[in-house]
Amino acid sequence: MSWADTLKRYVERKKNEKAEGATxxxxxxxxxxxxxxxxxxxxxxxxxKGKGKGKDKTFxxxxxxxxxxxxxxxxxQQKLREESRAVFLQRKSRELxxxxxxxxxxxxxxxxxxxxxxxxxxxxxxxxxxxVSSQAGVKCRxxxxxxxxxxxxxxxxxxxxxxxxFFNYVMRKVWLHQTRIGLSLYDVAGQGYLKExxxxxxxxxxIPTLPQLDGLEKSFYSFYVCTAVRKFFFxxxxxxxxxxxxxxxxxxxxxxxxxxxxxxxxxKEQQDANWFSAPSALxxxxxxxxxxxxxxxxxxxxxxxxxxxxxxxxxxIDRVFxxxxxxxxxxxxxxxxxxxxxxxxxxxxxxxxxxxxxxDVKGVGYLNIFSLNFFFRAIQEDMVKHGHxxxxxxxxxxxxxxxxxxxxxxxxxxxxxxxxxxxxxxxSILIDLNGFWTYENRELLVQEPIVDD
Length: 453
What we know:
extended; single chain; PPP2R3C; cytoplasm; two-stranded antiparallel ribbon; 453 residues; mainly alpha
């Protein structure tokens, strides 16, 4: 007998038992046919709310997956939540190894190293590794696992790992946890991400702890913070959501670059290469002030056109002002920083995404012959102004498509540019006369100078 027939018989029996009550309820409209079916079916199947053997207690303990944040007028709930988060972070902080415990760990590793010593580096095998684990204390136990040992093993003939590499691994893990806790203190929402204002507060309070920024005037702090924060958001928030995951901040190298400024002996070359250094921040802001010839604190199209070598095409500058946030047709410092980060990092996906949006004149999600010609005509006009014979567009168009090799032979998508690794070159050809000249003369530029015998 099928389950349908069984169900029908069961329903009929129930109907006969309670014919009078069920009939009156149905006729009165108190229970619909669907409700009656549900009632009888769940009783027959032994629903958790029923009294049958099929009752499953786990249905009463389904975990909650969403917790609504307290509203602004729920002051008590907000304070309770903040205090509980603070207590949680304090407990996590106490679980980390402090300096004394790290020194003790190094002492134990040094004491129990496994001979023979090859060169200057001490090694330890798995047996001694476990011996150190038993003496190092509870906080160290998570680091002394077979998984960690195997990750650090590098084909030593005696089956050992480097003590220094292991200790550096522990130090790095402790630093990551410390930094995550430090960042989480600024996570106002408590959702695992930082808004722009949260990150600004973090960096502002970090400045006094960075010796390389000792010389900064306090009046420049707000501009420095803006400069530093923009790099995080330009690269880690390409969709412009206004927030960044703390995990993403820890995973990228930007925080390492920022905290590198704790080193008092940082060389000039290292400072120049570090976006977060005082010389670098002053350079970017100084360029902005130099471009602002009318001293109104904003940049017009004509002012921005003098950026760098002044060889960016007028068409490109016009498109920048069409696509980017402006105020009464002028660009502020924050928008300028995005512009600089895009042009100084043209190889990076986020920079190419920024430039692609500008090159995509019609907003269709790809570059076609029209859009390429739209920008290259400005390059041709600038070449004529400088007394050069303009290059034919058809030749350049073919070279671009040959370089990119798009899936569609008539359309170049952003993904095509990223896959080709030629996005920087394509963008430079279309927006910058100097970039185009460098591309055209690439063979001459790489030739080695002839040395006379």
